[in-house]
Amino acid sequence: MLIECLSFDGYLEAGNRATDRCTSTEEGYEAWERFHNSLVAILETQGTVSGSPSEEDFYHSGDWFDTYVDGFSIFNAKLLDPKLLSKLQNCILEHDPGARVEFCGIADPVYGLEILITSEGVYANWSNMSADKCRDALAHLGVDF
Question: Is the pTM here over 0.85, yes or no?
């Protein structure tokens, strides 16, 4: 699974492209809850998902704001496993081509790392880093491009 490192503007653009691909007319909390539960089931195969920021692997605040958008905070590099990323991308494809999930690093060694998974790809941006510096930082974490 290739992770493409992008500038901040490129990262935002990738998210906007995902939104433009949305085909579902289903809206509301129930549709989001099915999407969210599918993502959680996949994440739980690799770590712990928590509803409180307790330094678990994946944290979700419980908030939702859009039917096919979800997000988690991460505390480590477990997310960067290619098989996990592929499963998450397949989950997105099963729900809607415009769905997306974002992960935000809130502790070392991933503090400031943002990962966006869409039907098009997996994208990374690291706060205050160029795309090249982001790629170097991911390589330091063991990500094989």
Answer: yes
